[in-house]
Amino acid sequence: MALAALLVASPGGAGVVPSVTMVAPYGHTQFTPSVYLAGATCGFAKTLRAPVWNSGSGVVSLAVSTKAWSCSKVPPLGQYSNEYSQAQFGLNVPLRGVTTGPHNVTVNWTLRIAAAEALAVSGTCPLPPITGSYSASYCSASAFFSVNGYAYLQDLTNGSAVYPSNYWSGFYNLSSETNSTSCYSTCYYSNSTSGSPAVFTSTINFQWLFPAVGRQSLNSHHRYIIALSFYGDCSADVSGNPTGYPSAHATALVNFGTLSNSWQLNFVQIS
Amino acid sequence: MGRRAIAAWPTLLLAVTSAASLVLLPGAVGLPSPAGSIHAAPYRGSTWFGYYSDSWGGCSGTAKLVKKPFWSNATGIGGFAYATKATACTHPVASGGTVSYANANEQFVASIPIHVAKNGAHRITLNWTITISTSQSLSSSKCPTPVPPSTNSYCSSSTYLFLYAYGYLRDLTNGSSVGSQNYWSGLYNDSNNQSSINCYSGACSYSFTYGRTYTGGPFHGNTSFGWLLNASGYQSLNASHRYVVIVDVYAQSYVGENGYLAGTAICDVNMATGGNGWKLNYLRIV
To answer: Into how many domains does chain B fold?
Structure first.
């Protein structure tokens, strides 16, 4: 492949560094997918699509989901339906056509995403059973999703790195509800809620800027890569002791892998 | 109710008053029978929870949960099944090197209520049988010589399995527990290969290479065991308290291939299908 991805533009102005733009197909890239799923009886954590890289189009797709609900029969040790899914990928893109001197390197990508989390709690947290002088109960339900990514420019020859001058803040949304009671002579109650469920669909275009200038100027004799890493994770949790909420449901989803959702590397430009 | 009279059992000593409870009836002299009372499936009133945690990554690691952790009150059988596999990479990955891996952790915890009719010291036996089929394999080809300017290459591969179970008595009224006097050693198999090549002035040689297996495997068939819980002294049982017997069965596996030009690491565990499973045969309380 190698240089099928290479476009070279030469600006006319004197003193302007010619720019090199790499687009798909991206040859000689290195891709690392990874998945982590953790779940319990009353719920599930799963990948809807494990991370896949298409070097021909520059597209990565992944999708994960979780769901948790109150168990109909709760063991005496309590309920712990904590469902968590995470999928992530690392991508190394070698830079081509590097010339010696100061440069700005731009990594431009588009994320088409659908993410959602929802929480439904009905009924009240049961009061603690009266046993001995102290008793307590708690109920918790929560859901969240998050998506984030970062990148750096690495010099494979001497091990140094250039970090972007800007950052992408990603997405995060959490909603939770907890209720607890503790009794010792007198009972104390607490209840808290935070956040609110969200449905998020968007197309985001972003670009990282790497100022390879000064002592970090590029060297045509060195080998460079753009090292990217992205993840999407989500959690749904219904927990409690001794029983938790009698009826709670939590669900969360991150999708940039199906239904036209994806992450795409548009171009890498050296200017 | 799940009870079973043993042939030589004086049936008058066994009685059950509720679906979820085992009742000890005193013998003729007002004490529990020396043989005690026995409780077998169905274990009505029992509750359980299952957990799983699986991860995989690199070039071609996979962890597949074939059967989620389960427990059946009706049969007293619980289990799970999974398959993990890692194949050596044909190309470097972005995380560095050539790595494939997979992890699997599965567990079920069952709580079986018992009713104690009389205060005092008791001995509880939990008799069970595990029927399991495991498959582990490990192959690794050549560890590549380092590519200059690197002067060293390191390769490793492994397949690891550990399955364990334990049981104890829990007093739900005061939160105390009585553990077993004896322990099952579990199932353990860990095989691995490692190689390292160093090059000096263009000449390369293995600094070490070895493979080893720490214990036997694979495991096929069944084995039985009995935990002994001695609730005596300050842990003597109280008829006004609520008790459960808890059994906790879990397994963890890891497979990985790192650096070798070819090879596959596999660890499959079937304790769920085809007659496999972990069965609580009976509880006996004396």
So the answer is: 1
- For residue B47, what is the nearest residue in chain A, using CA coordinates? A75
Say how many residues make up chain B: 286
Nearest to A32 among B53, B69, B95 (CB): B95
Query: Cβ neighbours of residue B58 under 8 Å, at least 6 residues apart?
Result: A32, A33, A34, B86, B89, B93, B95, B98, B99, B100, B101
B129: closest CA among B225, B265, B40, B57?
B225
Residue range A111-129: mean pLDDT, rounded = 90
Domain interval for residue B158:
46-285
pLDDT at A183: 86
With a CB cutoff of 8 Å and minimum separation 6, the contacts of B81 are: B65, B66, B67, B269, B270, B271, B272, B273, B276
Structure letter (DSSP) for residue A228: E
Please tell me the pTM assigned to this model.
Answer: 0.85
What is the predicted ipTM? 0.85
Residue A169 Cα, gap to closest chain B Cα (Å): 22
d(CA B182, CA B180): 5
Choose among B47, B53, B99: nearest Cβ to A73.
B47
Evaluate whether residue B7 is within a structural domain: no
Yes or no, beta carbons of B47 and A31 under 8 Å apart: no
8 A C-beta contact, residue B58 and residue B93: yes
- Interface contact flag, B50 A30, Cβ < 8 Å: no
Q: Looking at the domain assignment, is residue B67 inside a domain? A: yes
CB distance A41 to B49 below 8 Å? yes
Q: Which residues of A touch B69 (CB under 8 A)?
A: 41
To the nearest whole Å, the CA of B9 is away from the closest chain A CA by 32
Residue B39 domain-assigned (yes or no): no
- Domain with A46 in it: 2-270
